[in-house]
Amino acid sequence: MQILDGKLLSQQIIEEISVEVKEMVEAGQRAPHLAAVLVGDDPASQVYVRNKVRSCEKVGFESTLIRKGSDTTEEELLEIVEQLNEDPAIDGFIVQLPLPKHIDEEKVTLAIDPKKDVDGFHPVNFGRMAQGLPAYLSATPFGILQMLDRYNIEVSGKDCVVLGRSNIVGTPISILLSRKASPGNATVTLCHSRTKDLKSHCLRADILVVALGIPEFVKGDMVKEGVVIIDVGINRVEDATAKRGYRLKGDVQYEEVAAKASFITPVPGGVGPMTVTSLIKNTLRAAKGEVYK
Ligand code: GUN
Q: Tens digit of pLDDT for each residue in 150-171?
């Protein structure tokens, strides 16, 4: 069994990008510039945004953090989005989710210029992705693809089973894995809460992507020998013996499943670290004009 080490891999990719940025700057171009908008004081969002800004620093990007109070109105936020859309010095930007309840997230997402939507959340980017056109891929699916690619995991012709049909993970990864591309060309089954006999689908999987948000849902008796496991879950499970009072658990019962797997992503340290790398890659692609010519 081999661990798919997202922490190590993301460090390698960050290192590669920093070399590329250095070359860009030495050639007289300006460094790529990412802006992040954070509204309110959600503690998890603060940590995520801090990590994103820190990653920008590591690769030599410019970054701008726009922090707004939880009383910011929808109109004010839409005005900020408009300014960022128009600002030629900004290559890409994100509005960290979740937003306070009085702001319509869909309206804000739709207001972002798809050319600067480095989160890949705008339906234009999703649609382009689904049709195999150049697009910004959202962080988790892009991170999974990079991981499969870098570990040389054969995907073509394999039976891939995806558990979960969210807009940001399950649905896009199932499209991407079935596309005529590399990694891709898999036969994909997308399972969800109405799926009959989920276990029989899981047992057929050569590659199992689990994005349900249910701690330790997949047990050892649900997978076959040699399966490749991509565990997207990051669940806080109360544990009085842990320093913070909780432990992070994936959607897979790690010990049982790892005993049968050929490759498995740990939690933490698997898919999670790859997501920031995806955002950085998208910002680099934005700065180079690779996606929208
Ligand atoms: N909240 C949780 N994950 C994400 C993400 O990838 N992008 C944004 N904008 N908000 C998030």
A: 999 999 999 999 999 999 999 9
In what side-by-side order are the strands of the sheet with 207-210?
Answer: 2-3, 263-264, 228-231, 207-210, 159-163, 187-191
Pocket of ligand 1 (CB under 6 A): 48, 94-97, 119, 139
Question: Which residue among the candidates 119, 206, 231, 251 is catalytic per the annotation?
Answer: 119
The residue whose C-alpha atom lies closest to atom 2 belonging to ligand 1 is 97
CA 96 to centroid of ligand 1, rounded, Å: 5
Enumerate the domain spans of the chain.
30-112, 139-271
**Ranges in the chain, pLDDT < 50:** none
Residue 102's region, left for phi above 0, alpha for psi from -120 to 50, else beta, is alpha
Q: Find the 97 Cα to ligand 1 centroid distance in Å.
A: 5
CATH 3.40.50.10860 assigned to domain 30-112? The reply is yes
- Among protein residues, the one with the nearest Cα to ligand 1's atom 1 is 97
Q: Do domains 30-112 and 139-271 have the same CATH topology?
A: yes
d(CA 293, CA 288): 9
Q: In ligand 1, which atom is closest to the CA atom of 97?
A: 10
Q: Whole-number mean pLDDT of the chain? A: 98
